[in-house]
Every structure is written in structure tokens, then in C-alpha cells.
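Let's see one such:

===
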Amino acid sequence: MKPVAIFRHAPTEGPGYFATVLDRRGLPWRLIAIDAGEPVPADPTAFAGLAFMGGPMSVNDDLPWIPPVLALIRAAMARDIPVLGHCLGGQLMAKALGAAVTRNPVKEIGWGEVQVLDNPQARAWFGDVERFHAFHWHGETFAIPAGATHVLRSAHCVNQAFVLGKHLALQCHVEMTEEMIRTWCEVGAEEIEQAGGPAVQSPAAMCAELPARLAPMQAVAERLYARWIEGLAA
């Protein structure tokens, strides 16, 4: 089977629990370290699927790798190769499909409840899950692209996820591990301190009772990833 390409845009924002799910299923994957200067592949057919992780930059920044990534996403979707996006990755998918990515009313940093919308596509991906606590770290938000279905929302960010056929774009981070959360709190301490607001938690609050908080979110992630994996190209 062809590997799943996992695009990393920052050293601390790797595949996390997504890689764990792939490894448990014996599915090959290849990390493409954009942050280390690796080139963006031009041909999506070399991969079974494409997964894009998070990053501190904006999809609206003038960065040389963003236009080829957007072109790759469009090419993959045109060939029915599944695309998965986490936070920045979801924003890249939205922009590739012609939707705007703009500043969210507030920054979301930390744990926060998200609500699954009541529509057939949401039920197909989330099953009987109605709400769960996800991890968040973003200041921008995507609009829902034409033809896609809005499936997830939160009190501080209306558009938390959309689906389009085999493709899933998330604003929230369901890929988190305990190590990733602790690392983000360390490297993002200054941003946390400067951000403030109703949806920003302290590092202590984010790191409290992590095993108990991660377990239900990872159960949701397992379901989403399993559904996405069903669509992988041979």
C-alpha cells in the first residue's frame, strides 16, 4: 500500500495520536517536514492519503510552500485521494477550496467543548457522539467551502470542522498526546500570557488530569481516523 503523507509545519506539531492509529493498523506513512525545508510533492497519486498538521503561521502569510500545498490539496481531491487537516491543516483545505480564512473573534487555547451538528454527514463521521472536549490552539478560523458540510462547532468558534466526501477538515486538535500538550504549554507560554480572553486557559489548567481528559477525545479521534482510513487509495 502507498504511504499516507503527513505534512508537518512546525517541529512541535507532529502527527501525535494520528500516527499511533496508523501504526496500530499497520499502515505506512511518511513525514514530510515542511518546517525543515522538505519540498511539497507535486503528485498526490504517490500517496494513499494526505494529512496536514498544525502550525503557528497563517495560511494567508506569504510563504513559498503554501501555493504548492494548496495545489496539491486540490489535485488530491480531484483524484478522490482523502485529505485530512488539523487546525492549520483544516485552514489550508478551506483555502484550497476557495473559502476564506479570517481572524476568529477570540483566541481559543486549551480545552473546550465542541458540539456535533445534527445532520447526516456529521452522524456518519461522529456516530452517536453529540459533544466532547477537544483541545484548541488557534486565532483564525475558516469559512465552510461551497459543497462541504459543517459538522462541528464550539461556543467561541462556529466552524470547528467540515466534511466533503472522503475529506475531513478540523479546526480543533484531536491528535494531541500528553507530551504534545506539555510541550506546547512550554513553547507557547508567552503567547498564553499575552492572549488572555474567555477561551484561553493557563498551562496548569491545560495540563491538569491529562490522562482522564485525553482518553475520551482520543476515542473520538479513533472514530474519525477510522472513517477517514476507509477511504484511503490502494
Q: What stands out?
A: The chain has a mean pLDDT of 97.
